[in-house]
Amino acid sequence: MLLLTFFLIQSNIIWISPVDGNIPFPKDMNIHVLFPPIIQTHESIPLGHLRPLGWQRRADGPILEDSLNIEPARFYHLFVQGNRSVVIRGIVSALDVLWTDSYLSKRYGHLNVTVAKRKQRLVDTLTMMPFKTFLEQYRQDDLYMNTIIPDEMKFEASLPSLITCGIFSKRLLEPILWISAGDTASLLYAHAQNTLHCVLDGRKDFIIYDTSNKYPHELDLVKQSNGDLFSRIDVDLVNTYKHKYLHSLPWYWTTLYDGDCLFIPAYKFFQVRAHGRTIALSIDMAPPDIRNDFIGLDCERNPPIYISLDKGQFQWRYEHGVRHLTKRIITSDDARTYLLLLLGANDQLHKDIFQNFYIQATHELASKDLGLPTANHIWKQLNNDTTNEDYMTRNQITSLPSNVLQLLGDVLQKSARIHEYEKSEL
C-alpha cells in the first residue's frame, strides 16, 4: 500500500476531469460467480492455459476459519507467529450508514482520493481525483479506488478489537479503503506487511499460494521500493507453457462477504478478484519480531467485537489529499520506533526501505524546503558502520543515541506539521 503514494510522489499526478456527455458501456455487476472454478482438462493444451489464475490446478482446500471471539494471544501465536492465513467472519460491522454512491458523493465528494487501473504495473496508471468524479466513472471505466481512508469517513467504519491491544496496537500502519465495480482482478502479490483485509459491502474471492520460498523465481517477481513483491503473470490469461510451476503449487481459497476479514501474513502470495460493487478496508500492520511472546496487559477480557475506526492509532493519515505521519510531536523514541517498524520481523533494515519511508514522509516538505536533508544524508548520520553501509541491524537501531535519532525526528515532525506553518517558517 505504501507503494501507491510513493509512485504518486515520483511522477506527475494525473488529475481526471469529470466525464463528458458520452455514456460508456456499463460493467457487469453480477456477483453470482462460481469459485473455486471447476477444472476442465483438454488433451491438446496444458491445464488452465489462457484461463484466469486458479484454473491451473484444483484448490487444495478452503483457508482455515476461526471463531469470531478469537483472543488476541491465540491470533498472535497461531497465525502471526505461525505465518498462516485465517478467515474470521462477522468481525467488522455492516456499515452504519448505507454507503450508496449518492450518499458518498454528497457527503465526501469533495475529498481527493487515489485511484488506479486494475493492474498497477506502470506509474501512469495511478491518478488522483475528487471522490465525486471517481463515483461518476468507476461503474463504466477501468478504475478502482485504493486510498488511505480520510479522517472524515473513519467514524462510519469499524476496526476489529482483536488488533487494538497488545503488540498489535503499536504496529497499525494505515487503513486502505477499496471501492470497485465489475469483475476486478488484482495482480499476484505479496506485501511486506501483515494485512487484515475486510469486506464492508459486496464480495471478494481470494487465492492464497502455499510456498515456503519467500522469493520464488518461478513467479517472475518484481520487488518494489517498499519491499512488496508482485508477479508479472497475467492473472486473466495465464500462459502455462511459460508458468508450468503453477501446476504443482498448492493454493487455498476463500470468499469474503459483508463483515468478513482475511488475515494475510507478510510475504504470503495472494490474488483477489472482486465482483459487482465492492467496498473493502485493509489494515496494514508492521510484522513483529515473532521470536517475542505476546504481551497484552491492556487487552480486555470481553471486549466489543469491533470499535470505530477513528479510535485506531495509525502511523499514517490522509490529509490535504496526500499521506502524512499521524504524530505531530516526534521525539527521538518515536524516530526509533519508526525504524523498528520498518525493520518488521527482519534483523536488517536496508537502506532502500528507509529511503522509501523518508521520501514518503517528507515529500511535501521537500518541495518547499530546498535545504531539507536528503534520505541519504540522514541515513549516513544514523548508520556510522562503514562496513555495512547498505543496512542497519536491529542491535544498531536499539543502540542509536538520542541526539542522532532526534535529527530524523525533527525532520519528520516538521514534515508532519507542514500545514501548521506559515510559508516563511519553512
Secondary structure layout plus pairing:
Blueprint: H1 2-10, E1 14-15, E2 65-66, H2 72-80, E3 86-88, H3 101-108, E4 112-116, E5 126-130, H4 131-137, E6 144-148, H5 151-154, E7 158-160, H6 166-169, E8 172-180, E9 184-185, E10 189-190, E11 194-209, E12 221-223, E13 229-231, E14 251-256, E15 261-264, E16 270-285, E17 306-308, E18 316-319, E19 322-325, H7 332-343, E20 348-350, H8 351-366, H9 375-382, E21 391-393, H10 394-399, H11 402-416
Parallel strand pairs: 1-5, 2-3
Antiparallel strand pairs: 3-15, 4-5, 4-6, 6-8, 7-17, 8-16, 9-16, 10-13, 11-14, 11-15, 11-16, 12-13, 18-19, 20-21
Main location: nucleus
Keywords: Iron, Metal-binding, Nucleus, Oxidoreductase, Signal
Pfam families: Cupin_8
Structural class: alpha+beta
User: What is the global morphology?
Assistant: globular
What's the alpha carbon Rg, rounded to whole Å?
22 Å
- Spans of at least 5 consecutive residues whose pLDDT stays below 50 are 1-21, 120-124
CATH superfamily of the largest domain: Cupin
CATH topological fold name of the largest domain: Jelly Rolls
List the domain count as a whole number.
2
CATH architecture of the largest domain: Sandwich
**Total beta strand runs:** 21
Cofactor: Fe(2+)
Subcellular location: Nucleus
GO molecular function, one term: metal ion binding
Protein name: Cupin-like domain-containing protein
